[in-house]
Amino acid sequence: MNHVLTRAVAALCMTVAGLAAAAPQTADTTVPVPAARATYQLAAHEFDDYAYSYRLSNGQIAEFSAQNNRHYVVVRNRGITQTMSALQAKRGTPVQLLAVGPGKFVTRDGVELSFGNEGQMVTIANFERLPAAKVAASDLGKPTLAFR
Description:
Elements: H1 2-22, E1 53-56, E2 61-67, E3 70-76, H2 82-88, E4 95-101, E5 104-106, E6 112-116, E7 121-125, E8 144-147
Antiparallel strand pairs: 1-2, 1-8, 2-3, 3-4, 4-5, 5-6, 6-7, 7-8
C-alpha cells in the first residue's frame, strides 16, 4: 500500500510542477535602476564665471564656490536687520556640484542648476532639496531663478 501511495504522491507532484512551469509569470521581479549621468570635465578656470553669490526672489542667497577642484553651493538667508544678519551669517551646509555639461550641474539629491547669460543668472530645478532652502508650497517643483 505504501508503494501505491508513494506513486500517487509522486504523480501529483509532477503534475503540479508541470502546471506551475506552464503558468504565465505575472510578477515582474526586476528593479529599474536609473542610468548614471555622464560627467563633464570642467576646464581649468571655467567655474570662475559662476563662483559668485546669487540673490533669489525670496531673499535667500545661493553662494557658489570651488575648493580643491570641487564645486559647491551654499544657501543662506539674508536677515533684514543687522542682528538677524549676524545670526544668519553662519554658513549653511555646502552641497557638492557635479558638472554634467558647460554651465550645467547637478547634486546627488537631484537638484539641477543651469547658468546662463555668461554666468549672470542661474536656474535651479528642485531648489527645495538644498539644505536651508525655503520655498513656498505653491512654488514646490517650479524652477527658481537667481541673479548676481
